[in-house]
Amino acid sequence: MLLDFTDFGASWTSACLSIFCVFTFSVFLYGWHPITWWRLRNIPGPRGRWLMGNLPEIIPAGPHEVYSQWAQKYGKVFKYFAGAQPVVVINDAEMARLVSLRLSTRPQARNPATLMPPKEAAFQRNGLFSTNDKEYHRSMKHAWLPVFNSASLEISSKEMNIGAERLAAVLTKFAKQGKEVNIWRQFGYMTMDVVGTTAFGVELRTQEGEKGLNSEEAERLVWAAQTIFATSSVKASIYTQPGALMPFLDPLMRVLARYFPDAGLRTAMKARHILRSTVADLVRETREREAAGVVTAAKATEPGAAPTVGEARKRARGVQPGSFLNLMINSKHEASGRAVTNDEATAQAFTFLLAGYETTASALAFTIYTLAKHPEKTEKLIQEIDSVGRNASIGPAELARMPYLDACLKESMRLYPPGHITPRQPINEDFTVKGYSIPKGTWIHMPIFTLQRSEEYYSKPLEFIPERWVEGTPEETALNKKVPGSWMAFGEGTRSCVGQRFALQEAKITLARLFQRFTFRLSPGQEDEAGLQLQSFFTLGPKEGIFVTPVLRTEE
Ligand code: HEM
């Protein structure tokens, strides 16, 4: 009997056609996320585009701007889609605080690390910021805390004064030539210097024209840290982007990324490798020396344990006694008593450097910006600083006598919070807050930038009025409604910023040391926010920088 190939061909074609139609319909349906939409139907929000969701609105302007507009249109709680990812935004101080206190898991950022081999990805998750393992997080946070106790902060205040003095030397050159400087960038070099020394006990000496003993190693570390920061977004590699729209493509992207990495991914991996291997070498050498009885590691909690700058200069390599890394490698997990591994210690030092460098630089740059726009407030601040000591080194005792400095920084961080969103994600079960049911997997964003500029919590919310933070002033009573959760620049709850005391001390010492010597003239065109241009991807910062001309006070 002969086979009828005409029939077979027809049924084959119709089968293919059916598969194609089902596939196309599924992709079409998938692009509207109908199930998630249905589950979030009681929360209003903008209708996004097919597959892309609201990314086309969010990406160009940045969440800080778009959230403010959507809050006006949809109210305090709204939803949107970042590609396939549902996001619920909570723009209510009380609720935001409640969520931060009750939920302790954070979404994993989609960046090149998402595509890296499992070992590398696991290393990334070991950092205090990224981990969602509750027990491990508790244990690690406990291990971090001694670096921020009063004795350690007294010690690090010396490094901070040195960092500020080096910066002042750089700014003096600009002042003498009457030239403008991108103060944001300079603060970046300085904070990198300070966190680098604190984290590793290795002098990075990143500020202009400086060469430390460890300069080659330091330069590699600085390049690596800056590159990791610059490549920490979904835009860094072509392979991270498809998964933002269709997460089921991630396994395929991981394979492609492994065999055909693009330039963005290669750079990101190189930077991570440098940072990781440099730190791992430092840790290994120190462990070997300790085993041989050459160095007895001191604890950071012991006053005077941190190296003086002179000492640090003499040491070419190894983890310095008193540094954060030294503290980490001598720590044990609280519950199990297990020693912290090299990889865990390295991941913490890595986190310390990344979390502590750009945030503090932006907070400083925005404070210079707001003060430069308000000479009368600068004048008041200078009077306070001079009354404590015009050329004096500044430590915790001096800072305690500068309430107006504290108020200026707090007010500037209200208007320009570098950590502009506190994110959370219910991972294992749905989450309910004040009658809103939020399905597990949804990202929850507390938009600190929008909250801190709300008329509901502050009168004249867009004006820079430091007095609203000074106890006993009429402004404090009239302009600050003191609603819990309305100032959350360092977050709230178990995941709040571990480096808050360190960051505030560093910022205040730097500001005091600079205003002892300079005032700052804002370059034209930045007077309003349209001229300033903010960017808010990972953190909130100025897009290009903040440009000022330092003016030596003796020449005023
Ligand atoms: C002005 C500077 C800084 C700002 C504005 C800032 C802001 C923040 C914010 C908003 C969070 C998230 C809080 C939450 O989710 O509730 C955070 C977390 C964190 N910050 Fe900072 N930070 C600053 C400086 C630093 C410094 C200097 C360090 C380290 C030395 C640091 C280390 C961390 C770490 C490790 C976390 C994660 C904590 C955890 O998950 O338990 N930050 N920071």
Mean residue pLDDT? 87
Largest sheet: 4 strands, mixed
Distance between the termini: 107 Å
Shape: globular
Q: How large is the share of residues in beta strands?
A: 5-15%
Low-confidence stretches: 295-317
**Percent in helix:** 40-55%
Question: Would you count the extended β strands for me?
Answer: 11
Number of helices: 23
Radius of gyration: 26 Å
**Classification by helices and strands:** alpha+beta
Structure, described:
The chain is α+β, with helices and mostly antiparallel strands and 556 residues long. It has helices at residues 5-30, 34-39, 55-61, 63-74, 93-102, 118-125, 134-144, 150-177, 183-200, 215-230, 240-245, 250-259, 263-291, 309-314, 324-329, 342-373, 375-388, 396-399, 403-415, 448-451, 474-479, 500-517, 529-532, and strands at 77-82, 85-90, 181-182, 421-424, 431-433, 436-438, 443-447, 518-522, 534-536, 540-542, 547-552. The protein has a 4-stranded mixed sheet, sandwiched between helices. Strands 3-11-8 form a 3-stranded antiparallel sheet. Strands 5-6 form a two-stranded antiparallel ribbon. A hairpin with a 3-residue loop joins strand 9 (534-536) and strand 10. Mean pLDDT is 87; it is low at 295-317. It binds protoporphyrin IX containing FE. The site of protoporphyrin IX containing FE has 26 residues, from helix 16 and helix 22.
